[in-house]
Design goal:
single chain; about 260 residues; alpha+beta; 5-stranded antiparallel β-sheet; 7 helices; about 15% strand
Length: about 260
């Protein structure tokens, strides 16, 4: 049986220029090179070690890791390119980086949908980050600032113990991280979490929310976004723990 051809990916900012090539002063624009062969402008001579921040083209075959080691800060939009490595290729270590490839020459085959870099549910993840989190961030912050001591206790109980129908928040976070690693989506989760925090910062930019209220909103936002990343993999017992749904319900009344 013939082996399925390997697809290799490179991610860039919205202008299509490889970020590390820009930093090195030798910008390589993939958007202007579709269908063309590109030679590395300043290849390293000691294969395959870094002689500069941009010593070779870096590509991955596991799309969930394409945002790792790009030199880009987690912002959106990005662009995603399918490329073909040409000439001699290498790797730092097949044991630790089996999904990576390094080369000094590539052919840019086509652009593909950028949301795929955030995992199979990337489109839904972006919707949560761009729509749901901005709508809910102020409410999360207000919940905290209206009762800091009470919310601190509720958050601690949720993180450690969970609720009657779901696991604890800390356990769910650890499970999500482990699954992301096993699925080769660690970079995707890292970006998802930072994009969620960025959305909170934008939503609370003109408010007087306290620092701790912002931190609480960060946790709620990242939990919702990561739950969406894994929505087809986990049961509600895990997803509800990530989302912290019990924290949205009215606090239990205290007996007098």
């Amino acid at each position: 049986m013939a082996r399925k051809p390997v697809t290799w990916y490179i991610a860039t900012p919205a202008d299509g220029i490889i970020e590390m090539s820009r930093e090195a002063g030798t910008p390589v624009n993939l958007a202007a090179s579709v269908g063309k062969v590109i030679d590395h402008p300043k290849p390293c001579t000691n294969l395959w070690f870094d002689e500069s921040r941009f010593s070779y083209f870096r590509m991955v075959k596991r799309i969930g890791e394409v945002l790792e080691d790009t030199g880009m800060c987690p912002t959106w939009p990005v662009r995603l390119w399918i490329v073909e490595p040409l000439g001699e290729t290498g790797n730092w270590s097949q044991r630790y980086y089996p999904y990576r490839l390094l080369s000094h020459q590539i052919r840019v085959l086509e652009e593909t949908e950028a949301h795929r870099a955030l995992g199979p549910a990337g489109r839904d993840v972006l919707n949560v980050i761009q729509q749901e989190i901005p709508e809910r961030a102020a409410g999360w912050a207000a919940d905290w600032d209206s009762d800091p001591d009470g919310m601190r206790d509720r958050q601690w109980n949720w993180d450690q113990c969970g609720g009657p129908t779901c696991g604890s928040g800390r356990w769910a976070d650890s499970l999500a991280m482990s699954v992301s690693h096993n699925r080769r989506e660690s970079a995707a989760q890292t970006w998802i979490e930072q994009l969620a925090r960025n959305a909170v910062d934008q939503a609370l930019a003109d408010t007087d929310a306290s620092l701790m209220a912002r931190c609480y909103a960060y946790g709620r936002a990242t939990g919702c976004a990561v739950a969406t990343q894994h929505q087809a993999r986990f049961e509600p017992y895990v997803l509800d723990a990530l989302r912290g749904i019990g924290l949205d319900s009215p606090a239990p009344a205290v007996a007098v």
